[in-house]
Design goal:
The protein is built from 3 helices and 6 strands, in the order βαβββαββα. The protein has 139 residues and is an alpha/beta fold. The protein is elongated, with a radius of gyration of 17 Å.
């Protein structure tokens, strides 16, 4: 054995076309957690997923851009459903799973805001405490 993984993390961001991407993102997250556990059964697995609640987003692929607009109601509904599936399907695959919600457009001047900054900070801090506790117990 060359190395032993003690903590492994996977991070996925869904910025647009949420429901078109959800299966690929869920497979990536859960696959990463399972792969890590196969190789290092005692490893602490941490999953992060970020969901964009913005009505507008500009995707970039090389030199091409793809502007997307959703109604406010559509953005809310699609983002809520994406967040629900992430928690329900990906969450249980990890020892710790943190869902981050934000608004960003990927358009100048590149505005960004957490939906609930205080709540995200509290959830992140609590996750770090639990991870540290798990680390002390496992290693």
């Amino acid at each position: 054995m060359v190395a032993l993984t003690q903590i492994g993390a996977e991070f996925k961001i869904i910025a647009t076309a949420h429901l078109k991407q959800i299966d690929r993102v869920l497979n990536g997250l859960t696959g990463s957690a399972h792969s890590l556990k196969e190789k290092s059964p005692h490893a602490i697995t941490v999953g992060f997923a970020a969901v964009n609640y913005s009505e507008e987003w500009t995707g970039m692929e090389g030199t091409r851009s793809f502007p997307v607009k959703r109604t406010s109601a559509r953005a809310q509904q699609e983002s809520d459903e994406t967040a629900r599936r992430l928690r329900q399907v990906a969450g249980p695959a990890f020892d710790e799973f943190l869902l981050l919600t934000f608004r960003a457009t990927n358009q100048e001047p590149f505005p960004f805001a957490w939906l609930n900054a205080a709540g995200i900070a509290a959830d992140y801090g609590a996750a770090l405490v639990r991870i540290a506790d798990s680390y002390e117990k496992r290693f």
